[in-house]
Design brief:
The complex is a heterodimer of chains A (660) and B (145). Chain A is 72% helix and 8% strand. Chain A is α+β, with helices and mostly antiparallel strands and 660 residues long. By secondary structure, chain B is α/β, with parallel strands linked by helices. The chains are: A alpha+beta (660), B alpha/beta (145). The interface between A and B is small, with 11 and 12 residues.
Chain lengths: 660, 145
């Protein structure tokens, strides 16, 4: 019958899951998700590289162009400062060699300025500024160019003036000597006249006439000439010493007047070699002072050069102001350039950060989405559902729904599980059918059995039946056999019922239970049934537990080979399970039979010797198994007496009670 | 065998002759002298009861019914159904006497207002005790009339 069931089950629902080698579909989906993530990251990287290149460009612009322009501008301005410094030095140069030196410096600075401007032209894009600078530079050059020549002229002029002044002083001193000589002669003559008159000779009117008209006048004239010449020299020195060197027209007129007076007074002096010498000297002085190439002309010329230099100075100031303005403008523009480049750099950096941030967000979102869609929904959720279904079905809840679908491996497993469940349901049904059959058969067999028993009993009971001794003996045997059959049917019913969980849990005092069993089975008191375990109340299934213990203890007593004996029920408790060991001191069970004792209808001794259906241990095992327990036997009659049945059963201690 | 108005009549409903015999023997042993009727199935019992009602002027005379559940034609539960549906018979005192100890049977029987559910476990002993109780019951309890 079981075989036919199995065959039937094999044909329940042929299930063919396509077996794919290599990649499973779930893994493929995960890999696609990973690939998408990698692509997002790659796209972000490409975008990032573009942005990084933009940053690099902005940076190199800044470094290669904008900052150099800035630096170049400053360099140009520094060189300009050099130029201006050279010009300034040139203006105050004391002599020609220094001027030459400064001129060289100036030329070098100018050269450097031109080079710098050439360089700047290569960098900058603000050509108008450059043109302005160039124009300003050219203006500067053209304005400054005459400076050095003029300065040289000034030096020449100064030298010449110095020389002329020396000549003038020389002439004046020579004229002074001549005048001394003349004066000495006059004084001599006056002395002579005066001496003559002191000798008693009264001065004659001629003498007096001669004395006054010639000698005194001559002396006065000589003094006047000396004073006038002195004045001329002083005035001239005054011109030469004045910084402006300007010779006012009035002063020139005074000079000419003095000179004319000198000449006029000289004419009144009598001729003589000294007068000729003096006249020559005065004429030379006059020539030195007043000719077109004379000292006064020189001084005027110097004045003109100084004015020109002043003009150059003020023009240079103008140019310097222009340069300052340009400088400011270039500075501003260069700063603006640098600012612009910095701004470009900053915005490129911002864009890069944006791209990277977007990439990070995108990757995160994709990961979250993949996690939600694939890991959570397609794997975790379904795996969990499948796990619950498998656990529930494995735990015996065969009607648990299998909610997992889909065209992948999990779906295949779910469908396979559904097939297994069908199989299990079919098996369950067939087991239930079998149990029902056993139950109904046992039950229905009892009624006619009872009738047979009753009839036999009545036959023996009723005195009006005159039965032979043999008939009575037969009837008595018939009664015992019907009783045996009735016991067998009772056990069969128990066995059939053992498959159903009784369900109800209750508190049980194990010690008390063992005591009850003992008093029920061992009414004679020949057997001692001990309880060895914690004095505890447990929550367990009392009915099947009592049935198991009862059967084991009754087996121990029933199969004992001596009139007295001892049975120990040892209990330990751990992790929601009770572990029982029922030990007796009977003859033990030989090893070779230990496998058979749990099988149906197996007895080790004839039923006429020991009443037994051969179902007791089968019922026990079925009950223990029903509550997820295992039972085994431990006995070695070869070495020592006794048998121990060890099994576990669900049971939780609400609390341990102290031993009273 | 017309029942007296005051004495309750036993109606034994069982398809097994030996069971009936056993019960009759037990009654006899217990010296219970109430009139006893026998029906082989539910339908027969139902007919007997209706006949009794008709003969008693539409009123059910006192009856104590022992009812087996597994019977041909009309089984015990069907009989209970029919009796409770019949106005005249609805108050009938019925004890279930059966070998079935299936929980469902017990529940169904009690939900149809049986006075007791007795399992024929240990043939001789249980039966006689149960019948003794029924005899006492018949003497002591005032039945509806």
């Amino acid at each position: 019958m079981i075989n036919t069931h199995i065959e039937k089950m094999n044909t329940v629902s042929p299930f063919h899951a396509p077996i794919t080698g290599g990649l499973t579909r779930i893994v493929t989906r995960l890999r696609i998700a990973f690939l998408l993530g990698v692509m997002v990251v790659a796209a972000a990287s490409v975008a990032g590289v573009f942005q990084a290149r933009a940053i690099s460009r902005a940076h190199s612009n800044l470094v290669d162009i904008d900052i150099p322009v800035f630096a170049q501008t400053h360099e140009t301005i520094r060189i300009l400062d050099d130029v201006f410094a050279a010009v300034e030095l040139a203006t105050v140069a004391p002599d020609q060699p220094t001027l030459d030196q400064i001129r060289d410096d100036y030329r070098a600075a100018l050269e450097a300025l031109n080079t710098s401007l050439q360089d700047a032209r290569a960098f900058t894009d603000s050509q108008d500024v450059l043109q302005s600078v160039t124009a300003a530079t050219q203006a500067l050059q053209s304005a400054i160019a005459p400076l050095f020549d003029m300065k040289a002229q000034l030096f020449q002029s100064d030298d010449r003036i110095q020389a002329m002044m020396r000549d003038l002083v020389d002439l004046h001193s020579r004229a002074g000597l001549t005048l001394e000589t003349l004066n000495f002669q006059t004084t001599g003559r006056i002395e002579t006249v005066l001496m003559n008159s002191r000798d008693g000779h009264a001065p004659t009117p001629e003498v007096i006439q001669q004395l006054f008209s010639n000698l005194f006048l001559r002396s006065l004239n000589l003094t006047n000439i000396a004073l006038d010449l002195e004045t001329i020299i002083d005035l001239t020195f005054g011109f030469q010493l004045s910084e402006t060197s300007e010779v006012p027209a009035s002063s020139r007129a005074i000079l000419e007047n003095k000179m004319r007076r000198v000449v006029a007074v000289m004419a009144q002096i009598e001729t003589g070699p000294e007068r000729t010498t003096l006249a020559q000297l005065v004429q030379q002085m006059d020539h030195l002072l007043f000719t077109s190439d004379g000292l006064l002309a020189r001084l005027a010329d110097r004045e003109r050069i100084l004015a020109d230099l002043e003009a150059i100075r003020s023009a240079r100031q103008q140019i310097a102001d222009n340069f300052t303005a340009l400088n400011d403008r270039i500075n501003t523009e260069a700063l603006a350039q640098v600012d612009l480049a910095s701004g470009r750099l900053g915005s490129a950096t911002l864009r890069l950060m944006g791209v990277l941030g977007a990439a990070a967000l995108g990757t995160l979102a994709l990961a979250a989405l993949a996690n939600l869609l694939i890991t959570e929904r397609q794997i975790n959720h379904r795996m969990d559902s499948l796990h619950r279904a498998v656990s529930a079905i494995a735990g015996g809840t065969l009607d648990h729904p299998i909610e997992v679908t889909g065209k992948d491996e999990l779906g295949d497993i779910a469908r396979a599980l559904a097939v297994f469940r069908q199989t299990a349901l079919a098996l369950d049904r067939s087991n239930v059918d079998l149990e029902n059959f056993a139950y109904v058969a046992a039950h229905d067999l009892r009624s006619p059995l009872r009738a047979i028993h009753d009839l036999a009993a009545w036959s023996l009971e009723d005195p009006e039946n005159s039965l032979s001794e043999t008939t009575q003996k037969y009837l008595a045997l018939l009664l015992t056999r019907t009783e045996r059959l009735d016991n067998l049917l009772t056990d069969l019913l128990d066995y059939a019922r053992a498959g159903q969980k009784s369900g109800d849990e209750g508190r049980v005092d194990l010690s008390e239970m063992v005591h009850q069993i003992s008093s029920l089975l061992d009414q004679s008191g020949a057997f001692h049934v001990h309880y060895d375990g914690p004095n505890m109340t447990v929550i367990t299934h009392p009915t099947p537990l009592k049935q198991i213990l009862m059967n084991l203890v009754s087996n121990a007593i029933k199969h004992h080979d001596k009139p007295q004996g001892e049975v120990v029920v040892k209990v330990t408790h751990r992790a929601g399970r009770l572990r029982f060991a029922v030990h007796d001191d009977g003859p033990g069970i030989p090893k070779q039979y230990q496998d058979r004792i749990f099988a149906l209808f197996q007895t080790l001794r004839p039923r006429d010797e020991v009443e037994g259906s051969g179902l007791g241990l089968a019922i026990i095992r079925k009950l223990v198994n029903r509550y997820d327990g295992r039972i085994r036997v431990s006995s070695d009659p070869g070495s020592r007496r006794g048998t121990t049945f060890i099994f576990d059963f669900p049971g939780d201690a609400p609390r341990f009670e102290p031993t009273t | 065998m017309a029942p007296k108005a005051t004495t309750a009549t036993f109606l034994l409903v069982d398809d097994d002759d030996v069971s009936i015999m056993a019960m009759q023997r037990a009654l006899k042993k217990l010296k219970i002298v109430n009139p006893t009727l026998v029906a082989k199935n539910g339908q027969e019992a139902f007919d007997i009861l209706q006949e009794a009602v008709k003969n008693n002027g539409g009123v059910l005379p006192p009856f104590i019914v022992t009812l087996d559940l597994n019977m041909p034609r009309m089984n015990g539960l069907e009989f209970l159904e029919a009796v409770r549906a019949d106005d005249a018979l609805s108050r009938l005192v019925i004890f279930v006497f059966t070998t079935s100890d299936v929980t469902r049977d017990i529940q169904l029987a009690y939900s149809r207002n049986v006075a007791g559910y007795l399992i024929k476990e240990n043939p001789g002993e249980t039966l006689s005790k149960a019948l003794e109780m029924l005899g006492s019951y018949a003497r002591i309890v005032e039945l509806p009339s």
